[in-house]
Amino acid sequence: MGYVPQASLENLKKYSYKGVDKSVISRYVLNPFWTWFVTLWPLTVAPNTITLMGLTIVFINFFTMLYYDPLYLTVKGGAEGPPNWIYFTWAFGLFAYQSLDAIDGKQARRTGMAGPLGEMFDHGCDALNTTLEVVLAAHALNLGRSWWTVASQIATLANFYLTTWEEYHTGQLYLGHFSGPVEGILMIVVIYLISGFCGPSFWDQRLFTVTRLQHIPAVQKLPNLPLNEAFMVFGALGLGFNILSSYSNVRFAMKLAGKPRIRPLVLLLPFVVAASLQISWLAAPTYHNNDIIHSPNFVPFLCAWGLQFAHQVGRMILAHVTNTPFPCWDWLWVWSAVGALDANLPHILGRPPVIQASMKNTTIFVWLTLILSFLVYARFVILVINDITNYLGIACFTVRKKGEDGVWRTKDFKA
């Protein structure tokens, strides 16, 4: 039983990756390093293996956070978090992830394994990493369990969705002069390093106080936000710029193709629907201190949200590489809608929630949501990998190809 429609499998052979990266840092600093770094890897190592190694490092960072702060207690004025040296490991891990994520494509071209499977696998790992880094970065910024962390999740996922939506309509991955995969990641690395040296409480200081600008008359008219909240405002401005930039690129592509220029905007609604369901669930009126954001249920809730998002954008990328219609519906919305509706019953009908009537029941339901989201996404990943590898006669984690005689052979590399 496959996932990709049989009639669309032929389009896999027509797919070719196209990308544009206008980052100055990427061109003159990182790319020379990546070009050297990839030469250290044997040609027998599959590109997807390198990608998976990078994601594994991020998971190790995430689990160290849970080990040293199992209930995610870093709330403003709350309990202590992990020791400061942990943030240095997060910085190293994220930079390692960025490097491995960058060279997997180079390794694919070196080994002749470039194709739609690598595109799917790379973007799938990026989608998972997005939520993990939101949790870690919020921890390092001392935002903890708060609406600021939720806002960070929304902005980060929205940026990723926009990039995928843009790639679907333009046929190429576009990274501007300032992009999340390059400058955005480097900014988070710097945040980890500062938290390692100064501690997360450093980010509670006021922006103009730290920069010694509070005495300038023009500056005094502006709110003196804490550094962490100022960073969130900067992220919101970046999101607004990316929205305009992405739509400009899509509009230009639609104009060249002679297609409607407004219709692609409708395909942004699936993200709005998905995010609205999660926000309405979190914003439900507190019943018997049953509050997800300010409880240990917050991290599993965000992880479930991240897995559902990975499933959503994974289907978008699959539609791109198979040239099939844009996916607009996800049945996981039904489960999230049930959770949101149940939590809001006190506000809607003036009666207690049916499922989430206590903190214990809420915890069970949130963890069931996480498990269901994981199973749905895992099924998607397994079936898509099977469909692509079987049709193209390739392996996912080894440099092998099926010959015309049906025998799998390791690729014969020439010096």
TrEMBL record:
Pfam families found in the cross-reference section: CDP-OH_P_transf (PF01066)
Membrane topology, record value: Multi-pass membrane protein
Pathway involvement of the protein, from the record: Phospholipid metabolism; phosphatidylcholine biosynthesis; phosphatidylcholine from phosphocholine: step 2/2
EC number(s) recorded for this UniProt protein: 2.7.8.2
Catalytic activity, as annotated: CDP-N,N-dimethylethanolamine + a 1,2-diacyl-sn-glycerol = a 1,2-diacyl-sn-glycero-3-phospho-N,N-dimethylethanolamine + CMP + H(+)
Name assigned to this protein: diacylglycerol cholinephosphotransferase
TM regions (residue ranges): 50-68, 184-203, 230-250, 262-284, 364-385
Family in the record: Belongs to the CDP-alcohol phosphatidyltransferase class-I family.
Organism, scientific name: Lyophyllum shimeji (Hon-shimeji)
Annotated Gene3D superfamilies: 1.20.120.1760
UniProt keyword Protein biosynthesis, yes or no: no
